[in-house]
C-alpha cells in the first residue's frame, strides 16, 4: 500500500468509496451512460447532473425523467439546485427515496441564467438563504449531505467572509463533505483555479471530507491536487468528458504503477457501445443517437484523426450514421487501426 492510499479517507458520511477519484455533476453529460462508463474505468463515486428542485418535486423517477439509475452505478449522488429552502428539502427527500446515496447542494453554478434566478453560485452572496437551505435538506434526509461551492462570488473580502460563514454553518449542521472549485463564480470557467483555497478548507475542517475541483485534465493533475492541498479526493469534470480513461490512469498512479497507454480504437469502440446501449435504455433509440453526438465530439482528440472524427460526429443524426462512424473510424477495418493512410 502506498502512502497515498494509507492517507485516503474512504467514506463520505458512512458511504464507502474505494478511491479518491470521483465524477463531477456535469450538466448535460452525467446521464446514466456517462456515469456507468466512468464507473467501469475506476470512478469511485458518480454524481447525477445538477437538477432543479422544482423539476424533482413535479416528476417521477422512470428512465425518461432523467433520474434513472443503473444497478451497477453505486454509490451515486444527486446534485440539487434551487432558491427556496423548503422546496429544496422536499426535493432532497424525493431523491433519497429514489435511491440516491448522497444529496449534494449546488452553491457553485456560474451560468448567467442560473445566477439571475438566485440559484447556484448566487447563493454565496446570500448566507441566510444558503444556510437555511442546508438546514432544510439535512433535516429532510437520512443520507449524507454534501455541498458544492466555489471559493467565493468574487475576490472581495466580503465574498470571502460569506464563503466561510456559509461553510462553517453547514459543517455545524452536519454536512458530510464539501467540493471546492478553485475559481470564483465571477470567473466562470476562465483563468486558473486557485488550489490553495481547497487546502485552506481542509486545514480548517480536518475531519470533513473535502474534495477539490478545477483544472483537472489528467491523472497527473489529480494526484498533484491531492498532494499539494491535502484534500481527500477530486471531482473530475471536463477532463472526464474528453477522456473517461482518466479514472483508470488515476488509479494506476495512485497504486504506484506506470500510467497505462492511451486507449486503443477497440477500447474506445467498446466504451462507446456500452454507453450507447445505456443511452438507448434511458432515452430511446433516436434521442440516444443524438445524445452521443456531443460525447463523440468531445472525445475526438483520443483518435488518430481527430478532425475527421469531429466532423463525423457533428453530422451524426441517425442510427445508421452511428453504425457508419463506428465501422469506418473505430472498427477492425479502420485504416487507423493498422497504420494505413
CATH class of the largest domain: Alpha Beta
Topology order in helix (H) and strand (E) letters: HEEEHEEHEHEHHEHEHEHEHHHHHH
From the 3D structure, determine the CATH topology of the largest domain. Answer: TIM Barrel
Overall number of strands: 11
The largest β sheet comes out as: 9 strands, parallel
Low-confidence stretches: 337-341
Level-2 CATH architecture of the largest domain = Alpha-Beta Barrel
Rg for CA atoms: 20 Å
Count of discrete structural domains: 2
CATH fourth-tier homologous superfamily of the largest domain: Aldolase class I
Distance between the termini: 45 Å
Gross geometry = globular
Report mean pLDDT, rounded to a whole number: 92
Tally of individual helices: 15
Task: Set out the fold topology.
Layout: H1 3-6, E1 11-12, E2 15-16, E3 21-23, H2 32-40, E4 46-47, E5 51-52, H3 53-58, E6 76-81, H4 85-98, E7 102-107, H5 112-116, H6 127-140, E8 145-150, H7 157-172, E9 177-181, H8 196-204, E10 209-213, H9 219-229, E11 233-236, H10 238-242, H11 246-254, H12 265-283, H13 285-298, H14 306-314, H15 319-330
Parallel strand pairs: 3-11, 4-6, 5-6, 6-7, 7-8, 8-9, 9-10, 10-11
Antiparallel strand pairs: 1-2
Q: What structural keywords apply?
A:
341 residues; alpha/beta; TIM Barrel; 2 domains; nine-stranded parallel beta sheet; two-stranded antiparallel ribbon; 15 helices; 11 strands; 46% helix; 13% strand
Describe the structure in your own words:
The radius of gyration is 20 Å and the shape is globular. It is 46% helix and 13% strand. It folds into 2 domains: 3-254, Alpha-Beta Barrel (TIM Barrel), CATH 3.20.20; 265-338. The chain is built from 15 helices and 11 strands. Strands 3, 4, 5, 6, 7, 8, 9, 10 and 11 form a 9-stranded parallel β-sheet that branches. The chain has 341 residues and is an alpha/beta fold.
